[in-house]
Amino acid sequence: MMVETIKNPIKVSFLIKKIKPKPSIVYNTYWEFISKRQDVFFKRINNTQYPWSDDDIINNYKFTNVYRATDRVSQFLIRNIIYKGNQEPDELLFRIILFKIFNRISTWEFLEEELGEITFKDYSFKTYDKLLLEVLRNKEPIYSPAYIMASGKSIFGKERKHQNHLLLIEKMINDKLPDILQRCKSMKEVYDLLLSYPTIGEFLAFQYTIDLNYSNLINFSEMEFVKAGPGAKDGITKCFTSLGDYNYEDIIKMMADNQETEFERLGIEFRNLGGRNLQLIDCQNVFCEVDKYSRMFHPEIVGISNRTRIKQKFQIEKKEQINYFFPPKWEINNLI
What we know:
Layout: E1 22-23, H1 26-45, H2 56-60, H3 72-82, H4 89-102, H5 105-115, H6 125-137, H7 153-156, H8 161-174, H9 177-182, H10 187-195, H11 202-213, H12 230-239, E2 240-242, H13 248-265, H14 280-297
Antiparallel strand pairs: 1-2
Helix pairs in contact: 1-14, 4-8, 6-8, 10-11, 12-14
């Protein structure tokens, strides 16, 4: 199938590669989608009446926010888990990894309801196992469908997936991982450490690295390291007819580096997050969303997965208003 291309606008200053990537028609859509979806974010927090966009695809289908840290689950993690409670390294790691393994707010809230303050000091495998089994017996999910988690049975030997994951957390603490993380010199080093643990693949290792980096356990720039997930690879394949000498991560870095130039070229007024430009993790996530968006907007362009539909339609739900809060070290909380 012939894919329409656009005149190559790409300027690359941070990488010396002989062959530049060739953008497709979806490349401009990437930037337009970012602007439209970010506009929806601000309209929602300002209680503007629905519909929030003149784009029917964005109005009718579910897309995550442009900035990862603004999504509901990330906000719950930052406000209710990371910056609420004991800030000792063991306790921070325990809370963050426990929450992220399940990645489900209702699971955390149930445990908190039953146990009170969640701490590693008071942790008991038997107690946590019993409570999680109770949820499962009530036919309620304990894991979010957002991430696919390996069971870990071949490593830890337990029948239930959550039991193996509890043992994984115990292993991390027993290995003194919190102390080792604090000695890491780069985000890539953190990623490699997490990747070395059973049941944690490349995608999860990167996601957990970003989550840990919201805390004061580690402190690296989100512009330092990125790993493309499956959805991002699909989106990248649609945005470019050829990657040239670039790999997926190079492409994400290029997008982050060129964002201001590209918004200006397209005449797009993009309102960033309190002066914080899109970071590598955000540009990676947007590729996932543009993959979905282009199934409707550019149905003639097929990605790696050959998916043609967007599964989740948007529905207005009565959810608690988010009081947005970001890692204080970003210094943007008074600017949103």
